[in-house]
């Protein structure tokens, strides 16, 4: 049986059924398999079996209200159809539904169905249409003990009327108003309303019952007056109102509460300045405000201790003290008489409290002194850098440092978490502005200053690119999950030609921009500076092959980098290609912008781009707004430029020291990190052999330092600067080490299961730490559940020798591929193999401007890609079903027969051509789509076109997130959390009436 609770009755009579705007989509109840789900139908009460139809939620509610008996309900809806009908009616009625026999409210379909089977009570019709909620049996009003002596007493507290029975009420009316023709209402008047004079006792009786409200309700919009009341009076007002209404709103913000203590605690602190909030001394339980707390603590715990001579006799006589019992324990050998305050009495007549008051004085605290707390308390604080001692959340690492790990991040979609988010954002903006001021004042190293801006000549057009003739897989935007089967790719799917983009829209004002880049996306990077028209520059690197990624020979293939221009208007954005950069150093495996803003607005610098190539060379280009002067609106006539790199950084040859090295060519570079501090002279690249190559451009380019230790158990895979001169190196066997690029010494090591991953990514603009991903899987509740791994944040800024580990709410199925934090609002974006783009924010990700930690963790799904495939024709499915049934019958009749004939496996679509014919993507933008999954049956060998491999964020005041993956499609979404909240809508000022006009020309494959 499901639990039931007292719920306000709802007006759902058959004559007046109020339908809601719930969706007509019905979920699959437990116990019904997917195979039988499509043939389950609900039949109307009066129709024949031939006229079967499916009910919407509103029709389910109307049908349910027409039921009068259990026999009618049982005969009309056999089997599991009862639960389906109740589930639809529950959705349409707001989540609760009364039994049509006894009018008892229940909140679950299964609980209501089980209740109806056992319920044989008659329906209480007078309880169905009540305006006031039905009180719980546990919350019946207590009889009034206060004697009402005058009318003035009722006028001061009219709610006393609600606690009287009808006989006493009528007696009071006759006593206080002997003249029946003139009866005045003594309820507290509402604003703009005046009650009339009543001329009959019966009319006055009904009027007062309807007009008088609990005293707590009369203080709505008067929270300051309510806080001034005595605490016992406030508790009584809330308790009396809670017994009547079950749920009460906050007097300040209107948030509903169902428990009196939680409501009282919230009302005393809602929208109250911090210095005026109530405070209770943790030593003596003295109650005051926070502004008076410091002065009280000075007297409550004085620095000057009492003299030993004054208390020597008392301490010598008294032993253990028990303040609760008020008794003292006499030590052995002590005198039977003791003098306190000049009075000598037997020891048995003194209590411990009297002895302590004589020792420390009656005005001082007489409780046992506690350990003095630190300035920030005993809790862990990242902003203060405090790791508490004596907690089980601390472990010691191999290098002797303390590691404090917070518990798992709990996602709270509540008002308390969102209310703290705007204050958190203010500190983030302050830290970002401070970083920009400090970084802009820093000079560049001499080698970067010597690079002058240049204009790149057009070498060819994009019509000669190897991927220009490609088209994308089909995709379409969906509001609900498509559970149907398709034998061909649906006609509603759209396809894009290479280097083309399109904007898609949901039914509401929600948009996503999609661009096809011609191949699986390898890297996405947004330049730190924009064009003169505020368009941002996005560099995109793709793989040439969908199956093997790098193709046949990656060292001889041309390296191509696409440059796109991104513009935004409110929540809408547009993408258009700018030009293609071509290099002759093999495939490009990574591209990284130097995160340096312009020193002045008149400069044309967009940024310095470091390019990692398959031949092992690191190329550095300077990109300006004037580098490519001309562009084209046609994707096949875009300019392709082949400029010489401004700087070429080579690895040492042989790059491994020693006589055993036989390498003639440097290994490919797979990851690049560039330090923004000092003069930006440090560049770190990780090669395919697992070493980290460190260049100091201020000294020499020919003698880089190769960081490769024989004690490493696995090769390095990724490098990322985390602030200052420290770089985080991640290793394949889920290990992260932090090195100082100036001394090459390891300063931190993280190798804990489920937090240390094989990738580390930093955000030096805001945080002095790094994000770890691709760690061990989190434990699942059952074997059928798909394993997930998450993201953690490691912060090493502590006052003690240790670091913090903060688990984040981002979790992906199978694998998390990439993470990026927005420098504008500190939103953490992650993408994974499951095709989901998750956005989260955590109050413990503090910057240098934060003075406290915030206790919130928010997350939403900004994008979900569901891979779909064509299904087997119905004739083949039926033949397969019959063959399976015959095989099972034959096995039952002849258990010793030979093995069944092997049936051919379902086809797998693992190439680009097969995916075009048989696969497509469903795009979901609603936040509730985070629980959707791709088709699991026969999907392990298909090309995972839904996988999102890379994610990046921009630097403008309107934050956007860019993501792309295996399908070659790049998606652009707003990078905000709960933007529909009025406190957070300032990031995107969207007008109420938005003109529907396209931002970019739509180009499709005909």
UniProtKB/TrEMBL annotation:
The keyword Repressor does not apply. Residues 1-34, 889-908 are annotated as: Disordered. It is found in: Nucleus. It comes from Cylicocyclus nassatus (Nematode worm). One of its GO terms (biological process) is transcription by RNA polymerase III. Its main location: nucleus. It comes from the Eukaryota. This is Uncharacterized protein.
